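Per reviewer request, we include the raw input and output of the structure prediction for the construct analysed in the revised manuscript.
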Amino acid sequence: MKFKTVRAAAAQVEPVWLDARASVEKAIAYIEEASRRDVELIVFPEVYIPGYPWWIWHGPFSYASRFVPDYHANSIARDGIEIKQLARAARDNRIAVVMGFSEYDRGSLYISQAVISELGELVAVRRKLKPTHVERSIYGDGTGADLLVHELSVGRVGALNCWEHLQPLSKYTLFSMGEQIHAASWPNQSSYVHLAHTFGPEVTNAVNQTYAVEGQVFVIEAHNPMTQSGVDFFVHDEETRQNLLVGGGCSRIWSPNGASLGTPLAPNEEGLLIADLDIAEIETARAGADPVGHYSRPDIFQLHINRTPVRHVVEYSFGGDRSQRGGVHQLNGIPTTPVGDLLAGVDLDKLAGDFELPERC
């Protein structure tokens, strides 16, 4: 069996805060740069579009409420024009993309990741299973259907957001599906770092390094840095200024044996962390310890997963004309199987030009 080498990149990029349109344009510029540098897979931070909502950690409701209208207006639909623009950029540049975004669905928001192939296909959109701590004040939950690994040209790719990497059962699920490359989307790690060591780069990097070693996979760990303009965007008092700091970009690429690959960027630096992934290293690592193979005891431990999407409305029919019955209600009105070719029948010239955010009533 011949194993290939894949060039991958972690995009350590600050979003244009609460501006979906500008954030997409910035992301496309980095996708194009990555392509020029022969990158085949690029991973963006958690909710890169339109940015992580830091106000939920740094102020009372009276302060946080001022951000809500703009954040909802700039959160995007999984089949919206912003995703289609990213799909076109992926196709035009022949590069697979994992994009973190705040997903808008009929008034509710979700911490989501879009997996787009180098052909411009929307392979999947997954949601964070359980938002962390105060994230639950604005985001909803995902389901068991959001734990999947996808066969792309670069290999078998899975994805999680932020502290999902602290959930052993979620990790084991992806390991069991033969994951080879893992997209780890995180925000910046420069908030409350002097109060909680857990929030800092050292622990965060260790969590991702451990993921790589436990699962014998490559991990692309992408964080956004926080610039002074980003801090100024969120600061509303002196306490906030002391707790939300410049920096926090600690992107890494980890090999299955725990080695850090490529040259890390500075904490306040934007750019691409690029490394070549020798897929043969996975086989070497798994020869020693495969937690879902020879180094496991399924006769003692088993993991059970419920992948059935939860439906808010279940309709029952007692006969009559089928055409008069209600349609099947999928998860939050969204089909459980992802849309394939988002660009079919789309005016590509419109995707290249300006677009307006949708009106939401």
